[in-house]
Amino acid sequence: MMPRMTMLSGWGRFPQFQCKVSRPRTAADLRHLLAEGSVIARGNGRAYGDSALNIRATADMRHFNHMLAFDAASGQLTAEAGVMLGDIISAFLPRGWFPPVTPGTKFVTLGGMIAADVHGKNHHRHGSFGGFLDWIDVMQADGQTVRCSKDENRDLFEWTIGGMGLTGIILRAAFRLARVETGWVRQTVIPAVDLESTMAAFEAAEASAYSVAWIDCLSSGPRLGRSLLLLGEHASPGDLHAAAAANPFAIFERRKLSVPFGMPSIAHAAPLARAFNAMHYWRGARDARARLVDWDRYFYPLDAILGWNRIYGRNGMVQFQCVLPLDRSHKGLLALLSALSASRQAPLLAVLKRMGKQDSRFSFPMEGYTLALDFPVSPAVLEFLSRLDQIAVEHGGRFYLAKDSRMAAATFHASEPRLPEFLAMRAEKTGTRLFASAQSERLGL
Amino acid sequence: MSGRTVLILGGRSGIGLATARAFAAAGHPVQLAARNVESLETARTDIEIRYGVPVTLHEFDALDSASHGRFVDSLKILPDIAVCAVGVLGDQKEGERDLKSAILVMRSNFEGPASILSELANRFEARGSGTLVGISSVAGERGRATNYIYGSAKAGFTAFLSGLRNRLSGTGVHVVTVLPGFVATPMTEGMDLPPRLTAQPEDVAAAIARAIVKRKNVIYVRPVWRLVMTVIRNIPEPIFRRMRI
Fold first, then answer.
1. Considering only CB atoms, which residues of chain A are within 8 Å of chain B?
2. Environment class of residue B97 by beta-carbon count within 10 Å: exposed (0-12), middle (13-18) or buried (19+)?
3. Which residue of A66, A76, A78, A90 to mutate against B (max B Cβ within 10 Å)?
4. Among the listed residues A321, A392, A310, the one whose alpha carbon sits nearest the alpha carbon of residue A116
5. Confidence category of residue A246, pLDDT binned at 50, 70, 90
6. A33, A42 Cβ separation under 8 angstroms
7. What is the predicted ipTM?
8. Which pTM does this prediction carry?
């Protein structure tokens, strides 16, 4: 197993570090790595920032890519950490199963999904991915593998979910897929004229399986927070038109667009972004009736554009994602969106989602509203995001580590009352500090 | 094409496993053959779970020619397609000093594969159908100082496949010669391969599938190697003997 110096980054391509990357194939390979010093496991590198890179040693876990067992009665899949969500869908959707929780891309590994405790458009009803895990095998600093679950080694189980790989190396896990009747989704689009309407629409859509709002964050004044709320339900066979009904679980080989490397940073001039936002809103508002959309287009629209992160140009992109507690969401969102509209920053994507109750040791979601914004990297943007950080913290918010690439340690500490316990856990078990990433160093985790 | 059983000889190898997966994905039952084959159980269940085709494991030693007849008998189903991905790179310098090491490389890359393919050729010919795929190497196109022990064995194997193809012409049995250049597998793990010239095992698997469908005789993976080897083959010997490549 020969390590190779490779320039690594997250999906945002910012920051970038030369890292010593190994591609272990066996548990023995991993033990060799652990014996040499600090290391972080890496999946498919879809975290936006530096959570899955360690300059000294990064263990690319994608050779651990075997599906180990499937129980057709319960839908429980046992698989190694490097198995990709897209492959799980290819294998099991034809048999009527779908991931119970899915993030915005299917190009993530099982290990990554656990470490980030990913959430999706159904969080308000079904919570995060961690809720569907039955057990995880985690390799500890001493090379021993521990099986953890709600019934055994419960602490390790709860810290590992959302623990960003800092509790050990996830080797394999068992989780439950959800039954679906078809691979199609009934989508409804609801335009909302301002923030209050948007939030009211979310509350009214509590019973929807899936909900997310695309926010027109360049609106200001009375239109601040106007958005398109996209609701979704899994379609039943009766909903399908003839073409779809013939093959209800079809996996489409979509022709993929590919963004060229080295795009210059032209696409971000504010007027251009404003026009894009307005056009998108107008088209969406027109089309408010229910439509049938295939699973790939509904859940993974951006996956169709290979390398879409390169649209942001050479300097890369940075994402801001926070969640605000329910009782302070309205004020907090008003403050964030006002700051955004007053600044000259033009995010290309802005997403709002109502989240349900969740009480995890270290995972991101909490009951309230989460706002995610994408920006091209520049000194002005980085400075502006620090201001957004402050606003979020002032309103009791916290931040999604799978998206973070630039937050200051002090800010993160201020946002996270669970941190002292996390740090105690890191200190208590000898050797846990062996698992470290550029992000954990930056944030003092 | 689907439904026909595929035998992968050397089922532990990077190319062998990638080929097994590619065929399984297309609906073929797969037979994986290797030494200590029980240790391939994880690969077996993975392929079965992903693709829903039956996958069976078969103990097989390429170096034990005497056992090859029995091995083919032991396969409950005579496969429609057999892919030989058996091979070992060896260490050139070590082989120069230690004859036993050199002989192992030559037997693993030529004698062993030729023996099992002979056995299968006879059975396929008797049946009147089938495809044999031999994974040779561009290293066999010309012997050079840095790897001629491996290269000469592959050269022998390439000629063997060519002769077999000639013999079986008109019998309903097709023979495909696969000539990979650099491939990123465990066999080349420690090497510093040039990224632009290096294929993934999945690329080789896809090329094999295409070659079978299109009944190609000799394929290079990546295709650029056809050009590279044409040049190398045509360098006059007085010049080539002084080169260091």
1. 1-2, 25, 65-70, 87, 90-91
2. exposed
3. A66
4. A321
5. confident
6. no
7. 0.86
8. 0.91
